[in-house]
Amino acid sequence: MEDCFSRQKLFAPIGEKGQVKLSQKHVFILGAGALGTANAEQLVRAGVGQITIADRDYVDWSNLQRQQLYAEEDARNAVPKAIAAKKRLNAIHSGATIHEVVGDMGVEELHEIIPEVDLIIDATDNFETRMKVNDIAQFYKKTWIYGACVGSYGLSFTVVPEKTPCLHCLLGVLPSEGATCDTAGIISPAVQMVVAHQVTEAMKVLVGDYEALRSKIVSFDLWKNEFSSVDVSSLKKGACPSCGEIQQYPYLKEDSQTKTTVLCGRDTVQIRPMETMKRDLEVLNRILLRTSGEVKKTPYVLMYQQGPYRLVFFQDGRVLVHGTKDVGKAKSLYNQCVG
Amino acid sequence: MTIQVNGKQIDLPQSVNHISDLLNHYNLQSNQVIVELNQAIVDQKLHADTQIQNGDQVELVHFVGGG
């Protein structure tokens, strides 16, 4: 096989040995949006052996401005992000093994995946999931790399269990979502800057160079020309319920999970049935064809347009309701379709 | 007064005297921000009582959810 990694092996802190280590590692990327696709592409190009990438959403036109693994065809066909990502990653480097997961990452799913992986990359778009990731990472003693961005601002922090403070230490109470991509927008360079920090920290962890880790929280605003790096080690709390002396993992308790979520970056509500189920899209297709709305079926999803609202049904039972941020409105539209 | 925020010189209006004023000035909520004043982190509970002075160096890291 051709050697794709010669230039990386010339980089002394990685070298031949580091390259072998990278090929033996398994990284979990939670989220296949802007941060997730950029992390995935760089890690695959770097020669990481296995990647598991999970996302509950499908590709939308508004993603193409910054979600680098996707193209127009994926948006046209509403391909689930994890599937579209896998296809592109395989084309970039066939030697990497990509596991795709289409669906929500609840506590149960995280318990299945996390023991198998060496490192977790946070590429989610909300605090609720991040707190879950924070707890599960402490539970299995895995390093995870927080990354987030909005507008031209971004930040990153590497959480090493038993060493650094965790996200719970830093945040205390869960913030109500502040600015999101919905309200403030996002430019692609802000994504790439966060990812540059995440991937470099990931490489250090994967080759075992823990000394080189940044250990500070880094943040920047590319438009305002601001940069900051803050030592937060003094914020590690002995009484932290996630990483302190008595660990209770509050976010892993069944079940703090909400059944509806407003998605970042879109006028969209996700509805998840209480029980996991498999939805027969063919049957639903026949039912909805009898209504006044417009129905379109792809191999992965069923789309239903009714006035200004669009409902997208997935096989795993989830439904995305576009055209509203109002959970009540979304539920009533959902109930009109599936009763 | 002039202080440095995230590496940038900033002229503050006279009404800004404490860390909590500064956060208001930037439209930031206390529980979403880590504040470092002259290289020492300021406890969240002390934001309202901690004065800022001309020439201070402040780092503000605020958490966001997007990605």
UniProtKB/TrEMBL annotation, chain A:
CDD domains: ThiF_MoeB_HesA_family (cd00757). One of its GO terms (molecular function) is ubiquitin-like modifier activating enzyme activity. SUPFAM superfamilies: Activating enzymes of the ubiquitin-like proteins. One of its GO terms (cellular component) is cytosol. InterPro entries: ThiF/MoeB/HesA, ThiF_NAD_FAD-bd, Ubiquitin-activating_enz. Residues 5-241 form the THIF-type NAD/FAD binding fold domain. Pfam families: ThiF. Belongs to the HesA/MoeB/ThiF family. This is Thiamine/molybdopterin biosynthesis protein MoeB.
From TrEMBL, chain B:
Gene3D superfamilies: 3.10.20.30. InterPro entries: Beta-grasp_dom_sf, Mopterin_synth/thiamin_S_b, Thi_S, ThiS/MoaD-like. Pfam families: ThiS. It comes from the Bacteria. Signal peptide: none annotated. Coiled coil: none annotated. NCBIfam families: thiS. This is Sulfur carrier protein ThiS. It comes from Pontibacillus marinus BH030004 = DSM 16465.
